[in-house]
Design a protein that fits this description.
The strands form 3 sheets. A 7-stranded antiparallel beta sheet has the order 1-2-3-4-7-8-11, with no helix packed on it. Strands 5-6 form a two-stranded antiparallel ribbon. It has one domain. By secondary structure, it is mainly beta.
């Protein structure tokens, strides 16, 4: 298959990030990103002015993690977080895509519970813990993709 990329896009935006650790017990990680994209030049005139496909305008996340350092719960830790991604176009409007489909906005929750003992860490990590089903990308009537479902992973790690 042969092809030549032609055209130009302009992408502007910003990102903010907060990383904080309080008394070695509480960790907070948060971020927000704004992306404004636009096709500025194309061989297909109808594409000019459109947003780039699969480029959400807003992305935000926050994760809070707490570790017990003293008492009967010493070594235990737990955390929870939320991730948000706004909707995004699945393709550019054109001769082969007369209708543009949109991937859904999604808000997902993640969590972790762990226990540290000397050189060992035992943990259970959950991603999309509520099992939300959503269409992450939709390029056409037969080209839609669901986002990742619930995942729960148990790990045992030994530090040397």
């Amino acid at each position: 298959m042969f092809g030549t990329q032609i055209g130009e896009v302009e992408v502007q935006g910003f990102e903010l990030e907060l990383v904080s650790r309080i008394n070695k017990q509480l960790a907070i990680n948060a971020s927000y990103g704004l992306t404004d994209s636009e096709v500025t030049k194309s061989a297909t005139a109808v594409e000019v002015g459109l947003e780039l496909p699969v480029t959400p305008k807003h992305k935000a996340s926050m994760f809070v993690d707490y570790s017990f350092l003293d008492g009967s719960l010493k070594g235990f830790g737990l955390g929870a977080g939320v991730r948000y991604t706004s909707e995004s176009q699945g393709a550019l409007l054109g001769a082969f895509t007369p209708v543009v489909y949109t991937g859904e906005a999604s808000t997902l929750v993640d969590a972790v519970i762990r226990y540290d003992l000397d050189d060992w860490r035992f943990s259970i990590n959950g991603s999309n813990v509520f099992g939300k089903e959503y269409v992450a990308r939709c390029a056409g009537p037969a080209g839609c993709t669901y986002g990742a479902g619930r995942q729960v992973i148990a790990t045992v790690v030994r530090r040397f």
